Amino acid sequence: MEVTVLQILLWILVVACFALSFVGLIFPVVPGVPFLWAAALIYHLGIGDGQLGWFFWAVLVVASIFIFVSDIIANKLFLEKADSSEWSGRVGPLAIIVGAFVFPPFGLIFVPFAAVFITEMLHQKTYQEAFRLAGITVVSFLTSTLAKAIVQVGIIILFVISVVFF
User: Which end of the chain is less packed: N or C, by CB atoms within 10 Å?
Assistant: First the structure.
């Protein structure tokens, strides 16, 4: 089978989309999941001639939902369990977005930590309690980021298996 220039360009797009999905782990304003979908759709419609089966698409849907839910709920659940103020649940995610642009990737840790720490101090928490809650914010972000990265790698592995073996 002869490989065309168009197929090579489409493969480059597929790989670029997969790579860009990981940029969303460091820059939360970059949507990682749509890039995963774009890569799969480019392959499915442009190269694979409809080769990706229902199992791949079902896993992609479930994984996409998991990624969105972990993004939205993880920080809130961690902070609620730790008895933080309601404002920390709002400030934390915003500080993560701001932190993505302030000395990345370190801003993703320091900016949310400082923001939640200050928020909790303003809500009359002790220094130790504010410090603990700020640390929980960072841990929850890192935990959800790790979970997203694992799921994204799993999707890419499933994609490669589907392309090579099916």
Answer: N
Lowest mean pLDDT among 13-22, 54-63, 65-74: 65-74
Q: Give the phi and the psi of residue 63 in degrees, each rounded to 5.
A: -65, -40
Q: Where are the alpha helices (DSSP H) in 27-126?
A: 32-42, 54-81, 86-101, 107-122
Tell me the residue type at 118. I
pLDDT for res 71: 67
Task: State the Cα–Cα distance between residues 25 and 105, nearest whole angstrom.
Answer: 10
* DSSP conformation letters of 7-21: HHHHHHHHHHHHHHH
Report which of 115, 136, 102 is spatially closest to residue 29, judged by C-alpha positions: 102
Residue 36 tokens read as: 């995963």
- Are 38 and 64 in contact by the 8 Å Cβ rule? The answer is no
Q: Residue 85 to residues 16, 97, 133: CA-CA distances in angstroms? A: 41, 20, 9
Query: What is the DSSP annotation of 19-55?
Result: HHHHHHHHSTTS-HHHHHHHHHHHIIIIISSS-S-HH
